[in-house]
Design goal:
Layout: E1 2-9, E2 17-26, E3 35-38, E4 45-51, E5 71-72
Antiparallel strand pairs: 1-2, 1-4, 3-4, 3-5
Length: about 80
């Protein structure tokens, strides 16, 4: 398991990822640039990995307090091909 940092997708401009970086646990291999789905206090959101292998000393809490990445983000339109 490793610590990674993510930035969230801009709700007003989908496909754009910006803002502050937040730390999460990754229990599967991920790389910088991967788009993942992460839990937040407001529900799941898509985020982009901006840093991997973050040292424990760089996070502002204990490792046990970090949430885990839910998985890869769904790519494409949910209804793509549904109405065709």
């Amino acid at each position: 398991m490793s610590i990674v940092q993510v930035v969230f997708e801009d709700r007003r401009n989908p496909g754009t990822f910006n803002g502050g970086a937040y730390s999460y646990l990754a229990d599967q291999p991920v790389a910088v640039g991967d788009i993942v789905n992460v839990p937040t206090k407001y529900g799941d959101r898509d985020a982009k990995i901006v840093k991997t292998d973050v040292p424990v000393r760089e996070i502002g809490c204990r490792v046990g307090e970090l949430k885990k990445i839910s998985g890869p983000a769904y790519s494409g339109n949910l209804f793509s091909g549904f109405f065709d």
